[in-house]
Every structure is written in structure tokens, then in C-alpha cells.
């Protein structure tokens, strides 16, 4: 055992293997050319980064004259500049070039590699520096966000994004849990832990009283997380709370968040501000954590047979209560159906693939469930951009991929040598076991570009082969590193178990059923790498107890200009893209034409299909596209969305080739049943997953769909119209024309029925909102009758519109109406919609209410904010209508405004226009853009913020 001093002054234990004293890494050039610096091979340009809140135009961030390569997108430039450049904006110390950022990080890695004996000759260190620089510059991979935040700065050199804590059944340990979580949240990271050591509320204390139970202590931790979040952070605290299925309080834990969701529903219907940042949401508990149940194989076998399962006392281990396994599993599925929590973690599978069981069991995970290892540990992540390895002929360049993994794993291990950690216990465990988490992004884009459906045998075979190759090379490189600087400190004690797990990975590789030349070539190389991995590992051991995970790749995915994150399929076929110089446009994903060419379509056909997708958002009935190819273009959302089991099968295909697990939420339609959720959770266990979470559309009433300030709903006061004559009621005839409009405002769905006189405008309305028999439904019925009677007595519609538009209360936010994109309340939306349908342009112009086509025409006519040119507006709108072909089919009412004519701020909002309904995604609290799913978290395309760990 030797000790080496790290760059931060800490001592790190290093165990030298045989021949390690004189061995050094030999680094070969892969991407670079000797004598040419990577920066000299690209064209650089200066850009202005001005990031605004797209809703109100306020500036969130501004830095002008930043330097980036010309092939970096505007979005990647904006996010890197605003998130990762260090130094106060406007000062000389502020970074202003991508060169400075990459040099700051790479130079720190190279320096540490030399100091800690990784490189022998200076030439090897220089080649390593150039290769790492080239790969980062060309977006081949990215480190996780803490590296970009901290490395090379005066801040603590924290490189890990994922943390696991521990808590024991003592008050000192519980209070220390609160403290340690707070420190991690303060640094912008997330943590998870298992509460199963804490005595249940059904057990006695030594003093004779009854224990509080873990759920009660969860309240304090949740309040702490919420307080730290509200103290200036721009995102929610990310945390995971796990409870074992044999804990006596398991039923209370399962139902905890479902009961709170009932509270959210009741308070929101009563008019309280239940938005994520609302003033009344603090009364709802347990909302800052993801909850998961850790189920054992024993429990799952009892579920299969319909048997009883014992709940055990924490201190003695004796069974104190028996429960029906099927009933308990159904409660778990029902709670997840109601509010998406708890998720499920499969303890048997997790610990069967555990490389260091002699040092302790794996009991918990990080907040996104991809990192699973010992308590009080951390993992630093890096992800490859898979599209960078796709050749022009449609093949996957496996050899280049393998060489890239070598370089990245080397860099990741070097970082542990100089890293700082939030607690001494986490630092000690991480240095002793050196957990790494290499992964990838853009799998969905790669599969589509190679002509594979995401939910297909061919797609799963290619994904499994790539993941197997990544893990094999990572562990082979780890074994080579062990031969240079020694295996991890805990290896000797766990050598047999680690070797067993490596053999399991290699055996799983042999079971991959390849279907095409592409996946066969990748698996063939993976097979050779597994052989090399075992040969080198058996000689030297391994440098790292873990090597891989599949993380969400949220912000770093945007940094690499990835179309898809982590293991996810494409969100939709049409994307929202920012343009140089400002503005934005919708584009069809660039992987679509690439996939069409791989499938054998000619350029004329590709152009016609892409144009169709741009107009409709899907491929159904696209001209010339064969129906058997539709599945290649299936996405996470849209008209042809991937079935929930398709997501589970993809996870199962790659799980055997990961040290950790997969950050992914299986989305289910709103119509999904509790039984279907139960089946998904059961199949996850049967298929060998380590963790699984589901989300059923619209299951969370409190979903934060509006970041605007809300106010309590107030009772609608009777309007006393001023009339100059005795009012006479003009009743509607028995048979009258009418229309019904379905709408969504801030996630609340409803229907507006409007009846009119045959010759004289609107005469009645009926609004359906809320469940039948609820207070809200009753109030809306009474309100509708009052408005209808007022209309029939002669109160002008424009009077009602002027009174009710801009009225603010919840629900509020995004709508599914292209003419009214954002509403401050349901009444604001309803009367704007009625004005558009029943008032002439002259009166609407006075009220400032226009259709999407009319607003577009104003922009096209260089309308400058003065008096509205009604005649010109009619002419412009009329000309656009006349320009359509005479034989063109009439658009559906909800499709009158083309998506590109309506202002949106993200791909999710663009998708909502195509779907005609709101997506269950929060608005970013930083810039107001609607976020999109990224693994188990949400990602903002506008500013790069995430709702979970980086």
C-alpha cells in the first residue's frame, strides 16, 4: 500500500499491482494529428448570447462576444455560456471562449494524471491532452455538470453528480441526514438513501414509548429540502427515499404521496395556489423527493403464488405482521397510478450484480435511480454522443467507439485522485472504490438513423451490443489502469465477487441475438473485449468497482447537440430550433431524412415525406412512405407513441451490460389501468431490471404547468348591467345552432358549449369543468346559467369579455388552443375564445384579441404597435386564405393556425400544437420555457436547467 497526495492536498490510498511501479499508460492518437492543435482545425466565430423569458421578453442572461466553433448550435452556445463559464459577468475574469472552458478542465485532468503516475513520458500526457480536447471540442462526449462547474476553479473540486447517504436508527444519525442532504442540495446535486433501518411506528422505544417511524422523519427532510430550494436555487431539490418492502410501515409509505395528491386536488379545486412555486403549496408534504419501494425476490415469489409475506421488526428481525403479497403489490401499483410514486427497485437483481458485497449491500440509489452502490458513496458521470460514431454508410464505428471509451474512462478515474467531496464518509468510500458512470446519449436518434424501430428486436440488439462493448472496454481499461496505479482499495476483499460479475456480463453478451451486419459487428468486437477484460483483470484486478450507468444527460445532452437524451427515444419528429441572430423555427429532425435514405427512399420521396411531417407532425399517410416503415419513426409522444412495454423491453436489453441502472420513466397513457401498472412493475422484475418508474399522463393534479404568480379564486359577483330601457328577455328557439369546444388550461380539461340565435349572435353557454357533483362543477353550471340569462337580456358579449379577460386564478398557464396560447385563468380563456368566435374584428381589435392568423398577418405587415390597420389586416389574412389550393381539404377547427405561425418556446410546446393537448411537463422556473422529459427528470431546452440531478 502506498499513499499519494492528491491535487487538493488529500491523501488517497493506492494499491500497486504486480509490475505497477514501472508501468505507465501508453496513449495513442485517435482523433488528432501530431503537430496540429485541435483548436487550429476548426473555424471559430464570435456570438452574442442573450437569453430571454419568451413569455414576457425579460432578459435572463446576457454575454456578448463569446467564442465558439461555427458548427456549435445556438442552443449549445447559450447553455454552455450561461451555465458553465466561470467568473462574474462583465468582469475581465469572466470566461468568454469555449477554449478557456475546455482548457480549464482538461489541464486539471492532465496535471493530476502526471502527478499520480498515470503517464510516463511527457509525450503520452500531451497526446492525452489533445485527444481529450478534440473529443470535447467536437461534442463526442461530455463530463457531468459538476466537472464544468468546479474543476480548475477556486471552488472545491467536486466532480460527482450522484450521491448515496445512509441513516441509522438514532436521533443523531437522523439529524446528520438532514445536514448532509442540505449540504449536497446547496451544491446543486442530489442524494438518495434508504430509511429501512429506522424503527417503524409499530415498534417500541427503549423508554417504553412508540417510535415515530420513518415517514414522520420524511416530513422534516422534505421541509428542509423545500427551504433550501426556496433560498435561491432555480430548481427543485433532487432526492430519493427508499423503503424496504418488509418494513412494517410500508403501506403508510406507499400511500403517502397519493394522499397528499388528494390534498392538492381538493385545495386546487377550492381556488388555492397549488403551483410548484405557489404560496399554498407548502402545505403539501413529501413533494421534494422521489419515493421507491425496494422489493425482494422473496416478496415477488409470494406475489406470484398469492402467498403471505412477513413484515419484520427493525431491531430484532422478527416477523411482527403478515400481509397478502398480491394486495400489497396492488396498493403499490394503485399509488403509482394515482401520482407516479412510488417507483420500484428490485433488490435481488441489484445485489446479484454487486461487485463488492463483502463491503456491504446496495440499499439505495441516487435521485434518478441510475447510480446504485454502497452507502455514503458518489459517482461521477460522463456520456458519449452515439451519433458521432455513425458512418456515412449507416454503420456504427465500433472500433472508434472503443478507443473513445478508453480515453474517457482514463480521464474519469484520474478525476477521483484530485476530487473533493461533501462529507468525509463519502470521500473515503469513493476513493476506496472509485465508482465511475460512463454512459451515452442519442440512442433514440441512432436507432432511427439506422432504420431501426425503437421497439424492435433489431433496435434492441444494436442497443445491447453497443452497451456491452462500452462496458467491456471500460472494465478492460480499468484493469489496465489497475496494472499501472493499482486496483481499488476494496478489491482484494471482493475479488471473487467482482470476477463473478464480470463473467455474468460476458455471458450476457453471448446471449445477444444479432439480426443485422451492424449489430453483429459491434457484438463481435464486444466479445473480444470481454475476453481481454477478463484476462487483464484476472492478472491485475480492476481499478474501479463500477464503470457504467445510463444517466438522463439533460444539460450535457444539450451541450453535445444531442437529439435524444440517455436511453430515450425521440420526443417527436418535429423540433423547435433557435437561430443565429435571434428567432426560432420548427424543423423536422435531421435523423428523419437520414433514416429515409437508409431505408432506400429517393431524394424526391425524402423531400416529400419530410415536408409532410413538417406540416402534420407525424408520418401516417405520408406520401410514398410504406406502412411497414412507420414504426421506425415512432416517438415517445405523438400520434404513434411507443407502447409502455416497448420502453421496458429496451431497458431490459441493455441492463445486463451496466454496472448501475437506467434513469428512465415509462410513460403511460391517461387511460392506463392500475392492472397495467401492476403488470409493468411485475414484468420489470421478470426481465431483470434494477429499477423502474412509471408516469401516467395527467395523474398529478398539482403538476406545475404555470410559473406565473397565482391568486386565490374569488367568488363571481353578479354584474348589474346599466340599461336605458326595461330589459326584455329574448329566448332562444328550441332548435338553434351551436358548437362545442374542448380545451385545456394549465392541465385542467373542460368543454365549452355555445348556442346562438339563428341570426343574431351568442345566446347561451355551458361550461363543463371538474367532476360531476363537485363544488367546481356546480359553480361553473351556475356561472354559465347567469351568463346565458344576461346574454338573453341584452348584455353585449364584448362587455363580458372586457370584464373577464385577464382575470387571474388557477388553473392557469398553457392551453391547447393555437389562437389563445396562454390564459391567466379558465374564464380568461373562455371569453377570449368566445370573442374570437362571435365578435367582429373591429370589436376584437379594441379588446386586443386576434387569431393566430391575424397576429401573423400583423407581423408580416410590419405592424409597429400603433393603431390596428383593420382593412390591411383583413386583406393580409384574406390573401393568405386565398393562396390555398381550391381543392385543398378544409382544416379541422383546431388546426386553423399552423404550428409555425404560433409562438412557442420549446419542442414540447411545438408538440402540444400538433397533438392538440397539453403535455404533463413543468415550466422552467428560470426562463418560463416548457421543459421536456430527460430520463427521470425534466430538461429546459431554453436555458439548460433540470428538475433533478445534473
Automatic annotation (TrEMBL):
Domain TSCPD as annotated: residue spans: 733-837
Domain Ribonucleotide reductase large subunit C-terminal: 160-695
Protein's organism: Saccharothrix lopnurensis
Protein name, per record: Vitamin B12-dependent ribonucleotide reductase
UniProt GO molecular function: ribonucleoside-diphosphate reductase activity, thioredoxin disulfide as acceptor
Principal EC category: oxidoreductase
Reaction(s) this enzyme catalyzes, per UniProt: a 2'-deoxyribonucleoside 5'-diphosphate + [thioredoxin]-disulfide + H2O = a ribonucleoside 5'-diphosphate + [thioredoxin]-dithiol
Function: Catalyzes the reduction of ribonucleotides to deoxyribonucleotides. May function to provide a pool of deoxyribonucleotide precursors for DNA repair during oxygen limitation and/or for immediate growth after restoration of oxygen.
CDD domains: RNR_II_dimer
Cofactor(s) needed: adenosylcob(III)alamin
Keyword terms of this UniProt record: Cobalamin, Cobalt, Disulfide bond, DNA synthesis, Nucleotide-binding, Oxidoreductase
EC id: 1.17.4.1
Amino acid at each position: 500500500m502506498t499513499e499519494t497526495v492528491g491535487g487538493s492536498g488529500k491523501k488517497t490510498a493506492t494499491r500497486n499491482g504486480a509490475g505497477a511501479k514501472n508501468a505507465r499508460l501508453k496513449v495513442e492518437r485517435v482523433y488528432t494529428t501530431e503537430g496540429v492543435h485541435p483548436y487550429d482545425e476548426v473555424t471559430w466565430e464570435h456570438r452574442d448570447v442573450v437569453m430571454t423569458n419568451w413569455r414576457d421578453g425579460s432578459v435572463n442572461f446576457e454575454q456578448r462576444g463569446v467564442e465558439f466553433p461555427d458548427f456549435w448550435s445556438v442552443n449549445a452556445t447559450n447553455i454552455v455560456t450561461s451555465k458553465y463559464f466561470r467568473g462574474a459577468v462583465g468582469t475581465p475574469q469572466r470566461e468568454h471562449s469555449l477554449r478557456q472552458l475546455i482548457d480549464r478542465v482538461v489541464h486539471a485532468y492532465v496535471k493530476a494524471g502526471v502527478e499520480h503516475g498515470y503517464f510516463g513520458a511527457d509525450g503520452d500526457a500531451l497526446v492525452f491532452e489533445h485527444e481529450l480536447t478534440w473529443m470535447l471540442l467536437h461534442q463526442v462526449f461530455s463530463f457531468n455538470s459538476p466537472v464544468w462547474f468546479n474543476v480548475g476553479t477556486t471552488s472545491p473540486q467536486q466532480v460527482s453528480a450522484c450521491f448515496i447517504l445512509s441513516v441509522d436508527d438514532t436521533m443523531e444519525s437522523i439529524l446528520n441526514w438532514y445536514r448532509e442532504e442540505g449540504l449536497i442540495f446547496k451544491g446543486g446535486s442530489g442524494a438518495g438513501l434508504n430509511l429501512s433501518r429506522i424503527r417503524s411506528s409499530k415498534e417500541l422505544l427503549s423508554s417504553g414509548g412508540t417510535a415515530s417511524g420513518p415517514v414522520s422523519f420524511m416530513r422534516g427532510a422534505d421541509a428542509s429540502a423545500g427551504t433550501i430550494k426556496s433560498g435561491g436555487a432555480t430548481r427543485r431539490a433532487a432526492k430519493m427515499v427508499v423503503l424496504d418492502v418488509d418494513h412494517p410501515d410500508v403501506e403508510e409509505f406507499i400511500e403517502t404521496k397519493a394522499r397528499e395528491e388528494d390534498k392538492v386536488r381538493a385545495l386546487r379545486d377550492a381556488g388555492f395556489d397549488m403551483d410548484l412555486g405557489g404560496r399554498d403549496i407548502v402545505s403539501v408534504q413529501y413533494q421534494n423527493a422521489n419515493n421507491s419501494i425496494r422489493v425482494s425476490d422473496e416478496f415477488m415469489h409470494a406475489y406470484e403464488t398469492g402467498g403471505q409475506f412477513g413484515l419484520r421488526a427493525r431491531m430484532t428481525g422478527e416477523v411482527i405482521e403478515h400481509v397478502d403479497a398480491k394486495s400489497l403489490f396492488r396498493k403499490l401499483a394503485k399509488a403509482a397510478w394515482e401520482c407516479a410514486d412510488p417507483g420500484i427497485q428490485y433488490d435481488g437483481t441489484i445485489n446479484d450484480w454487486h461487485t463488492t458485497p463483502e463491503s456491504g449491500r446496495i440499499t439505495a440509489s441516487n435521485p434518478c435511480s441510475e447510480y446504485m452502490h454502497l452507502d455514503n458513496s458518489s459517482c461521477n458521470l460522463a456520456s458519449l454522443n452515439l451519433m458521432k460514431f455513425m458512418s456515412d454508410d449507416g454503420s456504427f464505428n465500433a472500433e472508434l467507439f472503443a478507443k473513445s471509451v478508453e480515453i474517457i474512462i482514463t480521464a474519469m478515474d484520474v478525476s477521483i485522485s484530485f476530487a473533493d467531496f461533501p462529507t468525509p464518509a463519502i470521500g473515503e468510500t469513493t476513493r476506496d472504490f472509485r465508482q465511475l458512470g460512463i454512459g451515452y446519449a442519442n440512442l433514440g436518434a441512432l436507432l432511427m438513423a439506422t432504420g431501426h424501430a425503437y421497439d424492435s428486436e433489431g433496435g434492441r440488439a444494436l442497443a445491447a451490443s453497443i452497451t456491452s462493448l462500452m462496458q467491456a472496454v471500460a472494465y478492460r481499461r480499468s484493469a489496465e489502469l489497475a496494472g499501472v496505479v493499482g486496483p481499488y482499495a476494496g478489491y482484494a476483499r471482493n475479488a471473487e465477487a467482482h470476477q463473478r460479475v464480470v463473467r455474468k456480463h460476458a455471458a450476457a453478451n453471448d446471449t445477444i441475438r444479432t439480426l443485422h451486419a451492424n449489430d453483429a459487428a459491434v457484438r463481435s468486437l464486444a466479445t473480444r473485449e470481454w475476453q481481454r477484460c477478463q484476462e487483464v483483470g484476472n492478472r491485475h484486478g480492476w481499478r474501479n468497482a463500477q464503470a457504467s450507468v445510463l444517466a438522463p444527460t439533460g444539460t450535457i445532452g444539450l451541450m453535445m447537440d444531442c437529439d435524444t437524451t440517455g436511453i430515450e427515444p425521440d420526443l417527436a419528429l418535429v423540433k423547435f430550433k433557435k437561430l443565429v441572430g435571434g428567432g426560432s423555427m420548427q424543423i423536422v429532425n435531421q435523423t428523419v431524412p437520414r433514416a429515409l435514405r437508409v431505408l432506400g427512399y429517393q431524394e424526391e420521396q425524402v423531400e416529400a415525406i419530410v415536408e409532410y411531417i413538417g406540416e402534420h407532425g407525424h408520418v401516417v399517410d405520408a406520401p410514398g412512405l410504406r406502412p411497414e416503415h412507420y414504426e421506425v419513426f415512432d416517438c415517445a409522444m405523438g400520434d404513434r407513441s411507443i407502447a409502455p412495454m416497448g420502453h421496458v423491453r429496451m431497458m431490459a436489453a441493455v441492463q445486463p451490460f451496466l454496472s448501475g441502472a437506467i434513469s428512465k420513466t415509462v410513460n403511460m397513457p391517461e387511460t392506463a389501468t392500475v392492472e397495467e401498472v401492476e403488470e409493468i412493475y411485475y414484468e420489470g422484475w421478470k426481465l431483470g431490471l434494477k429499477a423502474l418508474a412509471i408516469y401516467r399522463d395527467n395523474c398529478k393534479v398539482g403538476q406545475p404547468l404555470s410559473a406565473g404568480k397565482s391568486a386565490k379564486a374569488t367568488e363571481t359577483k353578479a354584474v348589474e348591467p346599466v340599461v336605458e330601457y326595461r330589459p326584455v328577455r329574448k329566448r332562444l328557439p328550441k332548435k338553434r345552432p351551436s358548437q362545442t369546444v374542448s380545451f385545456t388550461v394549465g392541465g385542467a380539461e373542460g368543454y365549452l358549449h355555445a348556442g346562438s340565435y339563428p341570426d343574431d349572435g351568442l345566446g347561451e353557454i355551458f361550461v363543463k369543468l371538474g367532476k360531476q357533483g363537485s363544488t367546481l362543477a356546480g359553480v361553473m353550471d351556475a356561472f354559465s346559467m347567469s351568463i346565458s340569462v344576461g346574454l338573453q337580456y341584452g348584455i353585449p358579449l364584448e362587455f363580458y369579455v372586457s370584464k373577464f379577460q385577464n382575470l387571474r386564478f388557477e388553473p392557469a398557464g398553457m392551453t391547447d388552443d393555437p389562437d389563445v396560447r396562454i390564459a391567466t385563468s379558465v374564464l380568461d380563456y373562455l371569453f377570449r375564445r368566445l370573442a374570437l368566435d362571435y365578435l367582429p374584428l373591429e370589436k376584437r381589435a379594441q379588446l386586443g384579441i386576434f387569431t393566430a392568423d391575424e397576429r401573423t398577418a400583423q407581423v408580416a405587415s410590419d405592424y409597429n404597435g400603433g393603431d390596428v390597420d383593420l382593412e390591411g389586416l383583413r386583406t393580409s389574412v384574406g390573401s393568405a386564405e386565398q393562396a390555398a389550393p381550391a381543392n385543398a381539404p378544409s382544416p379541422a377547427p383546431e388546426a386553423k393556425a399552423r404550428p409555425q405561425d404560433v409562438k412557442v418556446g420549446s419542442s414540447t410546446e411545438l408538440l402540444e400544437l400538433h397533438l392538440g393537448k397539453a403535455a404533463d411537463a413543468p415550466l422552467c422556473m428560470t426562463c418560463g420555457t416548457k421543459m421536456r422529459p430527460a430520463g427521470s427528470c425534466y430538461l429546459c431546452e431554453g436555458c439548460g436547467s433540470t428538475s433533478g440531478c445534473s
